[in-house]
UniProtKB/TrEMBL annotation:
Pfam families: Glyoxalase. Residues 14-140 form the VOC domain. Signal peptide: none annotated. This is Glyoxalase family protein. It comes from Mameliella alba. It comes from the Bacteria. InterPro entries: Extradiol_RC_dioxygenase, Glyas_Bleomycin-R_OHBP_Dase, Glyas_Fos-R_dOase_dom, VOC_core.
Length: 199
């Protein structure tokens, strides 16, 4: 009698791309490159639908945002569905320098937005694309230590927050997580690496 195959994970290694249904070609280029600054890097037909185009944009990390276009579709600013299983929003990373210019630059185009939102570990601002999809511009309030990722800091900050019974991650949790990661991952000749007051 044969044994069933062992159940194993399929290990992901990052987001490869996200594909959205857009309106016409020019609206897509004007928004993704002309508003969000994503270089337009690749253009071909939708290989599953010859009536559509397939545009590729670089969101800044070498991954891809792709858009299916059709010249018969027009922008519809009504909010996209948020039912279970639907995409609620897409968040894109921006620097603090860019984040604090975002509201002014959206307003120059007449784009309504949420204004800056304090998320404890990051700052956020929300607005919709021409198709009604909610877009978030998110900016971390910290840089991870050398050799660490933002996710490494976040999981340590979460553990610290939970241990202290705090409501959400904030700057102090992040600072303590960064200190912990440096102590754990970076060597020192000192026998005692505790905090000191030399004054």
């Amino acid at each position: 009698m044969s044994q069933p195959d062992e159940i194993r994970k399929i290990q992901t290694q990052g987001v490869h791309h996200i594909t959205l249904t857009g309106a016409d070609r020019q609206t897509s280029i004007d928004f993704w490159e002309g508003v969000l600054g994503m270089p337009f890097i690749f253009d071909q037909p939708n290989l599953d639908n010859p009536d559509e185009g397939h545009l590729y944009f670089d969101p800044g990390d070498g991954r891809l945002i792709t858009i299916f276009t059709n010249e018969t579709r027009t922008p519809d600013p009504a909010r996209t569905p948020t039912d279970p299983g639907c995409v609620h929003h897409l968040a894109f990373n921006v620097s603090q320098a860019s984040f604090w210019q975002a509201a002014k630059r959206l307003e120059a185009r007449g784009i309504k937005h949420s204004g800056p939102k304090d998320r404890g570990f990051m700052d956020s601002i929300y607005f919709t694309d021409p198709m009604g999809l909610l877009i978030e511009l998110a900016s971390y309030r910290f840089e991870p230590p050398e050799g660490c990722r933002h996710a490494d800091v976040m999981i340590e900050a979460h553990r610290i927050r939970v241990a202290r019974g705090d409501h959400h991650i904030d700057r102090e949790h992040l600072a303590d997580a960064i200190e912990l990661l440096v102590e754990r991952r970076h060597q020192s000749l000192s026998a005692d690496r505790g905090a000191k007051n030399p004054y």
